[in-house]
Amino acid sequence: MNRRDITTLAAALLLSLPGSLTQAADVTEIAITYIVDHPAIDAAQQGMIDALAEGGYTDGDKLALTVQSAQGSMPTQLQIAKDFAGREPDLLVGISTPSAQALQSVAGDRTVLFSAVTDPVAAKLVETLESPGANITGTTDKQPFEPTLELIRALVPDASTLGIIYNAGEANSVAQAEALAAVVGDFGFELVEATAAQTAMVPDAALSLAGRVDAILIPTDSTVVSAIESVVNVGTKAKIPVIASDTDSVERGALAALGFDYYQLGWLTGEMALRILQGEDPGVIPVGALDTQDLYLNANAAEAMGVTLSEDLLTSATKVIQ
């Protein structure tokens, strides 16, 4: 059992004990929740924890850390949020849009920090990116689609149809689909959409695109990313390149991604947490974002999906997985 599993198990036990988050006055309490387990969320969480430790807040010392996953269930996420808010920690943290929204809905005047939220404005978490307002701020993983579409065109020069799989019940995912639809024609693609309300529905959504699209793009959607292997499986069998929006998915079999390092995004979130714990008003701390993107390529996936990686792409890649 790894450290995060132990922390999550401990969190589950803590939630069963009324008032169990009560600690000594000199111990800071932080409660973290996220919608579903997958590497990008794990990386963001670890980056935040490490940044807190760098700032002097180490779990078990000056920090009492509680972590719990909703395991892909929104009702569970809402219950976790209520339980966390009722125990009045110093900081509530939601990694992913549904988690942040759940915490915000029950937080009252408690401070909420979010990480890896694609469109905090569309999700109605903040008033503006520059001035979040109220008692909330955080980091966004929003990135423009144009560079990714250029990448797809370089990978699949003759492609004319592009598929996208997303959760139509998640505000950020809908916003991404709309943003993609607005620019995809400029790159010579017709967009074909498939939706999945739950992780278990992702394989069928992927299958529905087989024979209809020349490439598949996975946005930063937790529901779909948590089941990326099922999309990769369809792409491999049907020779449809699968391109992701997070680099961790390339490690899991996607052909390519131009995306952020979620560990670094989590670290930035942790730095913001330190500022809040030191007394800064979260409502005036601008939403944070990384200013660089990394290109990851998977050579094995390229061969399996019928794509030849050019020397230019290989040379410009941050990492090539063999």
**Helix segment tally:** 13
From the N-terminal CA to the C-terminal CA, the straight-line distance is: 28 Å
Q: Find the CATH superfamily of the largest domain.
A: Response regulator
CATH architecture label name of the largest domain:
3-Layer(aba) Sandwich
Global morphology: elongated
What structural class do helix, strand and pairing data support? alpha/beta
Instruction: Give the CATH class of the largest domain.
Output: Alpha Beta
Low-confidence segments:
1-23
How many domains, as an integer? Answer: 2
Query: What is the mean predicted local confidence, pLDDT?
Result: 92
Number of strands: 12
Report the order of strands and helices.
HEHEHEHEEHEHEHEHHEHEHEHHE
Q: Biggest β-sheet: count, sense, barrel?
A: 7 strands, mixed
Give the proportion of residues in helices: 40-55%
Instruction: Supply Rg.
Output: 20 Å
What report would you give on this structure?
- The chain is an alpha/beta fold and 322 residues long.
- It folds into two domains: 3-141 and 261-284, Rossmann fold (3-Layer(aba) Sandwich), CATH 3.40.50.2300; 146-259 and 293-321, Response regulator (Rossmann fold, 3-Layer(aba) Sandwich), CATH 3.40.50.2300.
- Helices cover 40% and strands 19% of the residues.
- Strands 7-6-8-9-10-11-12 form a seven-stranded mixed β-sheet, sandwiched between helices.
- Strand 3, helix 4 (97-106) and strand 4 (112-117) form a beta-alpha-beta unit.
- Helix 7 runs parallel beside helix 9.
- Residues 1-23 have low confidence and may be disordered.
